[in-house]
Amino acid sequence: MAMAALHPSQPIHTPSQGDGTSASSPSPSNGFTGGHGSGLHALHDVTVAAQQAQHAQQQAQQQAQQQAQQEAQLASNNGVSGGTASSSTAAPGSTFSPSIQPSQQAQQTGGGTGESGQGQSTASDGTMTVTQAGDMFPKNLKADDFVRIRTLGTGTFARVVLVRRQHPRSEEEAHQVFALKILRKAAVIKLKQIDHVRHERQILHDVSGHPFITNLLASFADHDFLYLLLDYVPGGELFSYLRKFRRFDEPTAQFYAAEIVLVLEYLHEQQDGVAYRDLKPENLLLDARGHVKLVDFGFAKRLGRDGAGGAVETYTLCGTPEYIAPEVIQNMGHTTAVDWWALGILIYEFLTGYPPFWHQNPLEIYRQILEKPVVFPQDPSISPAAQDLVHQLCTVDRSRRLGNISGGAAKVKAHPFFNGVDWDALYERRDQGPIVPPVRYNGDAQCFDIYPEHDVDFEQYTPELAEQYDRFFANF
């Protein structure tokens, strides 16, 4: 079965009291109101749809040509000759010779100030020094300060685009590229995402500098939009490589699972109980050296600790169905333990190529999560250590779930599946990852899919909305 078919579900969110947005926010549309007519009306709809599809195809071709020209200019600026680099990537466990040697990759993707010239620098030994975003950008940033190159991804109310500076002050700045996340204010309000957007900005600000988390460099707003300026991670989604290879061998799965463990340890134990709540391959990007970067903190929330030192519970139903923990489905209140459950599901998917619970109907997925045990296939063969780790992470009783029991992340790191991992070397990114993306130059976007460059529907941020909601976006 194709991997694309295994992820029909979109992230879901049902806000509970005090954990979504203000009570005065309008209810979101469910997407099924207002159907088409029948007979001649239906024939007319089909005809219009065909015309729209043809027009969209022509627009996509024009956009692709424009993007190719812009990327060619970037490549020329970086001293890369014309032509397309091979898109082949090393299969996990095999030897891969990228089109750019590791030393060249460090130079071309770093520009002396990090992997794409933003917010951090990488020393020759692979260690990282963080530069504060305030050192790089003025406080009064605006969208016109950047030139849009192409879209990297789209969501329900946001778009991420590759950008460069409009007015670079040096040759180094001329080579820098960034990922700009653009959120539509009206859609944020309509979908009751105000609190989540604010949480995302604050948490990204607090965790910037961790080697396996995307770095927030700046945030700003205008009348219609909110903007998050992030470092550009050029390797694309880990999901794309999993789909390409069908599954990962155990050394590859161990490597990426270990980096995720370091992220969860940091979020849960050093950031006052931040629950990420949407761990999945699509939210893990690869940098130019094959290390993960966790992105999209839209569902993340700092839970804190109660008076007895235990984790504070929250009750929002959010996440992606295949990875949601049982306590979230049962609305029993959940904590950071949901991330350890999701890690177990993710490791299973790394090793087999598909999640253990899956169905076209999300309600059936929930039923499976609550009633079915995690069962491994006979082919491919999964080691006893890997199976045991997944079973301990995917324990329905969260009080017995690995990662959530006494000892926390240290117990996860001590599991036999991670035998041989040098955790200090991993954190310092001393070695390349098992999958090295074919990044040709700083700003290369060939590892990302092509998306339409304009939103079909655009909700207006009316004066009435501004009067009611501007206070929520103050100081963004």
Q: Strand order within the widest sheet?
A: 4-5-6-8-7
The DSSP helix count reads: 14
CATH topology of the largest domain: Phosphorylase Kinase, domain 1
Residues in β-strands, percent: 5-15%
CATH first level of the largest domain: Alpha Beta
Structural Rg: 22 Å
Distance between the termini: 44 Å
- CATH architect. name of the largest domain: 2-Layer Sandwich
Order of helices and strands: EHHEEEEHEHHEEHHEEEEEHHHHHHH
Uncertain regions spanning at least 5 consecutive residues:
1-8, 17-56, 80-134
Largest sheet: 5 strands, antiparallel
Oligomer: single chain
Structural class: alpha+beta
The share of residues in helices is 25-40%
Assign the CATH superfamily of the largest domain: Phosphorylase Kinase, domain 1
Domain count = 2
What is the structure about, briefly put?
By secondary structure, this protein is of the alpha+beta class. It has 14 helices and 13 strands.
